[in-house]
């Protein structure tokens, strides 16, 4: 019984389940006309980060027998997409605030 609970609450299954609330968030933000388009693009780029990180992490684990966090070049490459999405979100909301002030 405890192995079933452990598998349900493993980091991999929780990671997969966390996509559903995020997809709901994206759906709601897409429906709102007030959402800055550049920020919305940044939120969608977060999905690109996830889509890139999963195969890179699998490659590190299966081929190099290391965690993604232990392979600096691969980890840095994956984190680039998270940085890109965060910067895009910040620019989008910054532009929106500037347009409200004008």
TrEMBL record:
<feature type="transmembrane region" description="Helical">
    <location>
        <begin position="80"/>
        <end position="97"/>
    </location>
</feature>
<keyword id="KW-0472">Membrane</keyword>
<keyword id="KW-1133">Transmembrane helix</keyword>
<dbReference type="Pfam" id="PF12159">
    <property type="entry name" value="DUF3593"/>
</dbReference>
<dbReference type="InterPro" id="IPR021995">
    <property type="entry name" value="DUF3593"/>
</dbReference>
<feature type="transmembrane region" description="Helical">
    <location>
        <begin position="12"/>
        <end position="29"/>
    </location>
</feature>
<feature type="transmembrane region" description="Helical">
    <location>
        <begin position="41"/>
        <end position="60"/>
    </location>
</feature>
<keyword id="KW-0812">Transmembrane</keyword>
<protein>
    <recommendedName>
        <fullName>DUF3593 domain-containing protein</fullName>
    </recommendedName>
</protein>
